[in-house]
Each structure stands twice: as structure tokens, then as C-alpha cells.
């Protein structure tokens, strides 16, 4: 992604001034380097699983959780059985 494209994307979510500041900080620290930015799949799953455990411990039943999160009964049982 080119600098102007990155700035435009950042401006959509942060606002123009914050986008420019963020881009300047990235360039100062990492300019000229190739960055590998993770897509966040594992952190989103971890947050989802923690939310499922919290809701289950608060009394939500597996059928409601299954419908809300779109997961199989077996997968939900694995999630609630896992302790972190």
C-alpha cells in the first residue's frame, strides 16, 4: 500500500490529524522496512471465546450461545471446558 493510500485509510477511521501523526510515527520508526501486520484472527477468536465463557458462567445456555455465535454444540462445549 502506498503512503497516500495508507493515509486515506487511516483518515477514515482516525480523522485527518491523527492519521497524519500515526503515519509520521510509522515512517519514523519503520520507514523502508517491510512490515508484516497480522490480520487479528487469533485475538478476535480469543475475545469471542472469553465472551462465550463469561456468558456461560453467567447462566446462558448452550443453545442460545450456539445461535448467537453460529458455532456447533461440540465447539461450544470445547470452548467452555477450556480454562484460561
Would you mind describing this structure in some detail?
It comes from Solidesulfovibrio fructosivorans JJ]. It holds the Pfam family Mor. Residues 9-84 form the Mor transcription activator domain. InterPro entries: Homeodomain-like_sf, Mor_transcription_activator. This is Mor transcription activator domain protein. The protein has 84 residues and is mainly α. The protein folds into two domains: 1-37, no CATH class; 41-81, no CATH class. 73% of the residues lie in helices and 0% in strands. It has five helices and no strands. The protein has helices at residues 3-14, 16-30, 41-57, 62-69, 73-81. α1 (3-14) crosses α2 (16-30). The protein starts with a helix and ends with a helix. 4% of the residues are buried.
